[in-house]
Amino acid sequence: MTSPALAPSPRPRQATSARRRVLLAPVTITPSKPLGPSHLKGLFWTDVMYRATGALAEVDYRFSHTTYHLTEQTLAFWEFLDRTQGDRDYTELSEDDIGMLYVRHRAAQEQAPAAALRPYADAVEHHGWVHPAATRVLELWRTQYARLGLHDPGLLAHQPPGLGLEEMLEHLRARGLCLDHRGLGGPVYLDLTRHGLPLRRIVTADGRPNYLACALRELLPLAPEYDEVVFLYDPDLDPDYQLLARVLAPLGPTVHRVPVGRVPVDGEIRSARKGGWRGQDAAALLDATAGHDEAATHLGMRLYFIATLGPGQGQSHRPDLLGQCLKRAERLLAGAPATAADDLPERLGVHRRDHVYVDPYRLTTGLLARHRAAPARDLLSAVFLCP
Questions:
Q1: How many CB atoms lie within 10 A of CB 161?
Q2: What angle do CA 163, 254, 229 make, to 5 degrees?
Q3: What tens digit of pLDDT does each residue of 174-205 get?
Q4: Which single residue of 3, 232, 325, 327 could bond 303 by disulfide (Cβ 3.0 to 4.6 Å)?
Q5: How far is CA 271 from the centre of its chain?
Q6: Which pLDDT tens digit goes with each residue over 42-72?
Q7: Is 118 helix (H, G, I), strand (E, B) or coil?
Q8: What is the pLDDT, as a whole number, of residue 341?
Q9: How far apart are the C-alpha atoms of 92 and 78, rounded to whole Å?
Q10: How far apart are CA 260 and CA 319, in angstroms?
């Protein structure tokens, strides 16, 4: 019998005629502040990839906040809130209000002791507990997702990882990928040095997992069930996603890394931990779409965040360009011919290379190409005009 600590062996690959299975695993966003332009860019890229690839393959979109609530970044903020705000009612606060509390927390540069965070980790791990401030932010995000036509992958759902922390470490240990110094009072490292990659600490000496450890708990049992795993993440996180790809690929899937550049504001890439989102967050951008109907808003936002801003991070956020994209969306919708849906997979398939997933940038920029037929309504409805 296979040890429960080990991920299952790679499943037999399906026949080439069968629909292949793809797992999209974008980096999660800590529910502690408003959604800014960089967050929205990643969400729109993932959404278009999910909907377009779904016409060609079986696609799962994994975006579990439950898994990553256990990181110190989240637990320390919750401890700060309870210590400084007491039993405050968060149900009437905006995400901006909660975000400013997060800015205060980060500015204080306090390091909560492990003993203070342990009850929070236990409540998350064993009881599915979520701090009411995070629940409030997720509720607000869910409303904004609906207005933006974004697929909700379960923002408020309890989605625990398939492996416990010790089970995950046992899996790594069995493969010779774990350097565990806890017995000597030290941390735990992911060890891929034989592949030319640096040691990466994943658990502190006092038992606190980082984002990479949480990702491994989630993805190790999932990866063998898929033909492809696609990561979408900030370029700054590329070293960690190289490590993840190296760990998961031997389990069977082809692993693709898709860095999506962040969005500068006035030429500067800003961290949400310092604030500065007012007038640039999802609520403000939605207000800027007043006068445009839902279809134009959904399509125009995707034209802006995918085609106009592109995969890199050289183009600053420009409200005037967003306005132009909304107008362009109206023209595309007005001129879209009706087309039978039976050849939609073929029209989407040309936006793939050597992978199953559809490239959002190639697909979306194709809508704007000159000397090309206007995009048909069935394609727009299936991928860009989401109820």
A1: 23
A2: 50
A3: 999 999 999 999 999 999 999 999 999 999 99
A4: 325
A5: 17
A6: 999 999 999 999 999 999 999 999 999 999 9
A7: helix
A8: 62
A9: 18
A10: 20
Q: What is the pTM of this model?
A: 0.92
Read off the tokens for 91: 């149900």
Q: What angle do CA 206, 236, 26 make, to 5 degrees?
A: 85
Look at residues 104, 96, 107, 106 and name the one whose alpha carbon lies nearest to residue 133: 96
Over residues 133-189, the pLDDT tens digits come to 999 999 999 999 999 999 999 999 999 999 999 999 999 999 999 999 999 999 999
The CA distance from 333 to 293, in Å, is 11
- Is the pLDDT at 2 greater than 60, yes or no? no
- Residues 382 and 345: their CA atoms lie apart, in Å, by 11
Tokens found for residue 341: 């849906």
Question: What pLDDT digit, counting tens, does each position of 211-239 carry?
Answer: 999 999 999 999 999 999 999 999 999 99
Angle between helices 294-302 and 132-148 (to 10 degrees): 100
> What tokens does 188 get?
């735990």
Long-range CB pairs of 374-379, under 8 A, 24+ apart, other chains included? 374/332, 374/335, 374/336, 374/337, 375/332, 375/336, 376/336, 376/337, 376/338, 376/339, 376/347, 377/336, 377/337, 377/338, 377/339, 378/338, 378/339, 378/340, 378/341, 378/344, 379/339, 379/344, 379/347, 379/348
